[in-house]
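Milestone M4 deliverable, item 7.
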Amino acid sequence: MKNVMGIINLHENDDMLREMTRYRPLAAIPFAGRYRLIDFVLSNMINSGISNVGVLAKGNYRSLMDHLRSGKEWDLARKRDGLFILPSVNGSLIGEHSDLHDLHNNLDYLKSSRQPYVLMSGSHILGNLDYRPVYEAHLAKKADVTLLYKDYGLTGRQGISFEHATMIEVDDDDRVVDIEICPVRPKGNKMSLEMFLIDRRLLIDLVDSCLSRGGSSVARDCLMKNLESLRFFGYSIPGYVARIHSVESYFRRSMDLLNPEIWQELFFENGAIYTKVKDEAPAKYQHNADVRNSMVANGCVISGNVENSILFRGVKVHPDARVVNSIVMQKGEISAGAVVENVICDKDVRIMAGKKLRGEVNHPIIIEKGTVI
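Output delivered:
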């Protein structure tokens, strides 16, 4: 896919993740012990042969830049092509969340790129995806736009929320006939992954045309309004796909990783998932530690009980402490005798001795970054 460049659009709806996105963009939310959400789409692009990737930034993206750095871990620290941060333009007259406006202000990047096609994606869809069949189908159908979607069928919707999702309808030839953004009652079970492949020159024309007519959204103004005038096709993605749009979905999809089959598929199906490298000692289990069905990152020191949980790098679980069905992010500390159950502890959270926090499986408690309880 040397003819395709990637753009990761960070203008995403994080209203239901405010506790976790107060100091970081959605793309920088930690996941699976040592990764960030952006690692998945970025690794998918690299594994598919894309070597030119732009990140359309938004808001406070300092932590994201610290994570991505030069892009070395993804083989994007290059003299030609590589990783580009496309900064947001503050003071937009069109709206606070205008990805169309920010993309227009970075059109020089699009115009100077040498690849004729663009794959645009958000960061909140997690999967181990191979984009090469999508590119081949795009060329075979002579499509103007190819939308990636997940078909949950008539019986595969259990436990899947379509809240704030984009839904599509396709005909027998996979031609897209309808797009719904955040429908209250979706007509079908085909959920857009908010990824699409498009001709670069066409995207430049659409961005310029839509902005000049008062548009503010790539999805609504560039895609939906041109559904009838352009050749839109869908491409159904097989396998495991996770959408992170709320605290509950983040918790559920994290707990999915304790299933070895899902973990294996998500991290190795079409190539490895890469992340920022940190050299730390392996996890240390004291003689009285009891760990069951859990994911434990390097640098952890465990002296208590851990069950059905995910511990990030550098977490400390003291003697007689219990961590059950919970997520404890980097450098968290669960002191002696403390109990956390159905809880998400953000980075640098300390639960003092004897404290007990219990949430519900469908409504976990979330402790914000740096909190001491």
